[in-house]
Amino acid sequence: MTGPAVPAVSVADLPADAALLDVRESDEWAAGHAPNAQHLPMSELTGRIAELPDAEPLYVVCRSGGRSARVVAFLAGQGYPAVNVEGGMQLWAAQGRDVVAEGGSAPQII
After folding, report:
1. Are residues 58 and 21 in contact, defined by beta-carbon separation less than 8 angstroms?
2. 62 has catalytic annotation
3. Is residue 13 part of a domain?
């Protein structure tokens, strides 16, 4: 059973200046993330919701699109304009978009 449909965009259709929120866990973020993304793990979202970027819409990304869809549904319920990035960071990297890692290691999507 699936929940209500959430607003979504494919990586290919993501605006160049999109405000990107990465909701993966810290180890995933450190291994590889979009250069201009902001990190806020899904597990910490409710306690840190005040830290969300003041952007409309806010594009939410995770590894493959599942967690980010749940975050978008939650944010939509709070009246926050959010859009799920379908395919997540796996598709982002597969399309050759920039990925950076913490600590100078080779970036990877884990």
Report:
1. yes
2. yes
3. yes
